[in-house]
Amino acid sequence: MAFDPGEVSKASRFHALMRLVRIEHTLFSLPYAYVGAFLSGFPVTLREIILMSLALLGLRTSALAYNNIADLDIDSQNPRTWNRPLIRGAVKVSDAWWLVVIGSVIYFVSAVLLNRWTALLSPIPWFIAMSYSGAKRKHSFPHLHLGLTLALAVAGGTIAVGGNAPFIEVLARVPWAFFFGVLFWIAGFDTIYAIMDYEFDVKHGVGSIPARFGIRKALEIALAFHLIAIALFGIAKPLYNLGWVYLTGWLVASILIIYENAIVWRSLEKVPKAFNLNIPIGLILTLSAIIDKLLGGI
After folding, report:
1. Are 237 and 265 within 8 A, CB to CB?
2. Yes or no: is domain 13-294 CATH 1.10.357.140?
3. Which pLDDT band holds residue 252 (cuts at 50, 70, 90)?
4. Average pLDDT of 27-49?
5. pLDDT band for position 104 (50/70/90)?
6. What pLDDT sits at residue 7?
7. Which H or E run includes 82?
8. Rounded distance between C-alpha atoms, residue 85 and residue 280, angstroms
9. Is the pLDDT of residue 239 over 70?
């Protein structure tokens, strides 16, 4: 299982930079913020959509660039990650640091321009995103850390459009079922993904659920995370007055999540295929919720 979504396969410097920040994963995380905005009940403006998109793109770019730098010692020893841009020299470490700086500036400027709450709270998601690499060095549950990082986009979407309301009201309007659904769904598939590095992580003391509990138990924990996520996404329908469009999306996404787990239970060679299923799963869940809300929950 040598699959690595971060590997660079072309000589183009631009391509190497895009692989460093996994641009497709960054783009696929944008709808989480949009869900937080549209399910909040606050009015959503084009200006807010643009600024929250820039903030998320900046944060993800800086965090992924930094975590690649921080993981150089690990990635350089792991055969699965030898084709990553920094390891191959396709991207200089100094260029990666520039991405950290530029992404962070875009993030913080966008947060300040949005409203007072996003400005005041902006250091929290930045610190959590930047500390992911350190999590795997300190405990066996970095998957939950990653899940929290992406779930914060949901809360961020609500906060981005609720700047004129009292903060307690803004918090109350965060679609928390979606927030925790994203957290457990991401943690589940990242646990499955970590199986590919099981032997390396055990040997080098890298924290992960598979390394701590073994592959069989890790599959059970991932399934438990995903069943919790399915339930949370399910109760989002009555909680946020969603209709048949979201119900259809939830059913399709739930089937795909179960299928993702089923294929890796049958064969660990299917981990890459299971991992790639998560882009359509995320898009189906988020876009069906947004479309349903825009249609008035029919």
Report:
1. no
2. yes
3. very high
4. 93
5. very high
6. 61
7. none
8. 26
9. yes
Nearest 5°: phi and psi at 242? -90, 155
Note the pLDDT tens digit of each residue in 156-215: 999 999 988 999 999 999 999 999 999 999 999 999 999 999 999 999 899 999 999 999
Q: For residue 10, is it left (φ>0), alpha (ψ between -120 and 50) or beta?
A: beta
Assess contact for 44 and 32: CB atoms under 8 A. Answer: no
CA atoms of 6 and 17, how far apart (whole Å): 10
Backbone torsions φ then ψ of 8, nearest 5 degrees? -105, 135
pLDDT-above-70 percentage for the chain: 95
Residue 205 region by backbone torsions, left for phi larger than 0, else alpha for psi between -120 and 50, else beta = left
Q: Would you tell me how many other CB atoms lie within 10 Å of the CB of residue 269?
A: 11
Could you say which DSSP state residue 21 is in? Answer: T
Compute the average pLDDT of residues 19-23: 72
Helix axes of 176-194 and 142-161: crossing angle, nearest 10 degrees: 150
Six-digit token pair at 200?
A: 């390396």
With 0-12 / 13-18 / 19 or more C-beta atoms within 10 angstroms meaning exposed / middle / buried, residue 39 is: buried
d(CA 210, CA 271): 13
Res 100 pLDDT > 90:
yes
Measured distance CA(216)–CA(229) in Å, rounded = 20
Which residue, 121, 141, 120, 119, is CA-closest to 132? 141
Spell out the domain ranges in the chain.
Answer: 13-294
- DSSP string computed for 24-50: HHHHHTHHHHHHHHHTS-S---HHHHH
H-type alpha helices, the chain: 13-20, 23-28, 30-38, 46-70, 72-75, 85-88, 93-114, 116-121, 123-130, 132-138, 142-161, 167-173, 176-194, 198-204, 209-213, 215-239, 244-266, 271-276, 278-294
